[in-house]
Every structure is written in C-alpha cells, then in structure tokens.
Amino acid sequence: IREEAMNEISKMKSIDELEEMRIKVLGKKGELTQVLREMGKLSKEERPVVGEIANDVRKDIETELNSTRERLKNEMKKKKLEKERIDISMPGKEIILGHRHPLMATIEALENIFLSMGFSVVYGPEIETVQNNFDALNSPENHPSRDLSDTFYITEDMLLRTHTSPVQIRVMKEKKPPLRIVSAGRTFRFDDVDDTHSPMFHQLEGLVIDENVTMANLMDTIDTFIKELFGEDMETRFRPHYFPFTEPSAEVDVSCVKCKGKGCEACNGTGWSMELLGCGMVDPKVLENCGIDPEKYSGFAFGLGIDRIAMVKYGINDIRLLFENDMRFLNQF
Ligand code: PHE
C-alpha cells in the first residue's frame, strides 16, 4: 500500500487529485482503513505488530501528502503570478479627450459677448408655426421666401423655421418690455448644397425693446459686438436693405479678418466680409402684432449667420466641413 501510494502521489498534478488520493487510501472506506478494520481477525501477538506497521504507513503517506500539497500550492501561485505579471515598460493606452465643435465654440463665444452686454440667452423651437415664422413678422402672403421651393413645410401651418426671427415674436408675446435677448439655433431653407450653402444652417437672433431705442443704439451695439468678437481694428459698414419686419433695415459688412480692410484674395479684393448680418428697427406693425404699444416702445433686431462667422473666424472655406464630422477636420480645433 505504501509503495503504491507514494508512487501515485509523486505523479499528482493538482490539489484536487491529491484529495481524491487521500480519501482512496486513508478515508473511511480507504485501503489502509480496511486493513486496520480487519485487525480483529488477527491473533493477539500479531495485532500490535501489524498495528505499528499500519500506523507507520499512515504517517508516511500523510507526510508525503502534506508536503506534496504544499509544493503544488506554491507551483500554482507561481504560475498565477507569472500570468498576471504587469509589464510596466509597456506604452499606456492613449486617452482621447473630446472638445467643442468649432460651431458650438462660436455660438458660445457669441452668447458670452452678448451676455457681457446685458442680453439674456433664450431658445426657440426648430419646428415653428407659419404664423410665427412669416405672418406675425409681417411677411407678405406672396413673398418668395414662403414658396414651397424655399421652405420645408411640415403641414399647411407648420414648418422648419427659415430664420431665428420667430423667436422675436415668441419673446414679445410672452414678456413685457424692456427686452434684451439673443437666441441661437438651427434654421432651414430649401437650398442646394455648395461650399457656402447648406439646407441646415445656424443663426443668432438679437432683440432689444425699450423706450427711446434708436438706430444709433443698434449701430453701436453691432459695432461693439464685432470689435469684441474679431478685434478693435475691425470696422462695420451698414448698407440699406429690406426685411418685412424691420424699417429701416440694413445689411452689415465687416472688415475682412485676413487683410483688415486692405483687400486680399479671401475678400475678392474688397476689404469686406459680406452679409454677415441683417438688422433694423422693429416695424411698429410687428410690435402691434405682439401686443406691444408702438407709441411707447421701439426696438431693434438683428440676425447673423453663425456658420459664416465661424468660417471667417477659423478660416474655413467650405460650409460642408462644419457638418460632415470628418475627424481629420475636427481634430484641427
Ligand atoms: N431674419 C433675417 C434673415 O434671416 C435677418 C434679420 C433678423 C433681419 C432680424 C433683421 C432683423 O435674413
């Protein structure tokens, strides 16, 4: 029994196997236990002799089992440590941090400038009523911008707003003057896509209503804003224009950011970045439409193209780059 057991123990590869082995030899029904049980059949003289031998065998096997168990335990530990070893010389995983989209950074910069000038930031829905988008803004029934080929209609009365000006209507209907708000967001027009046009673009609307607000206040506000955004040496130029909801109206050009008005390739030699902004004194009829007394209050409004401003600010020459989410482009900012 001893020899066989010793031989088998030396071949054991796991602690489980070892335990099976122990039960087989030393357990209740084990081979050695069997021997001890049958001692009763032996004579008085034989009993102590066989008993001693059996006890020796038991002790030897137990000792061998214990030492083998220890050895296997250590081997397993070693293997585990080997497997879990950490190579501290390996390069780490790169953590890629996201950042603001250039367009969102521009919106934030614009909002911050207007906040510093005492404006509040408000939001309006991208799906608007025809009433807010056109009618309340005095836009004539037959105005070409209402055409199905220019505007995304959802139903007869609902559309994707074609500008942020309906936010003016919402604010004037909901709140009493004095009002001083800006509102940035998406706008939609049925335009073919090219390097300066996209059916989805962004505007920022501004509205100021109070007693004694004049065109001079409008011009100074725009001028101050442009200098804050692009620098003190920037100039603005107001060209007469027409919008149904402002009178008088103007379009604003700004000195070319690249050449500061000297004339370069970017501005076709004119020295101006064109059509960044539309503005004017809120038409008294629009005030009336919103329940504001035009005898007591006056105000101005402006709408600027955020995409254009972002393009001028960052030197981007194709509006599509802003919406394609090409990482090679975005990673540059
Ligand atoms: N909503 C006009 C546009 O989209 C811009 C504008 C806004 C003009 C406010 C005057 C006053 O062209």
TrEMBL record:
Its EC number is 6.1.1.20. It catalyses: tRNA(Phe) + L-phenylalanine + ATP = L-phenylalanyl-tRNA(Phe) + AMP + diphosphate + H(+). Residues 58-89 form a coiled coil. Binds 2 magnesium ions per tetramer. Mg(2+) binds at E247. GO terms for biological process: phenylalanyl-tRNA aminoacylation. Residues 109-324 form the Aminoacyl-transfer RNA synthetases class-II family profile domain. It holds the Pfam family Phe_tRNA-synt_N. This is Phenylalanine--tRNA ligase alpha subunit. It comes from Sporanaerobacter acetigenes DSM 13106. The lineage of its organism: Bacteria, Bacillati, Bacillota, Tissierellia, Tissierellales.
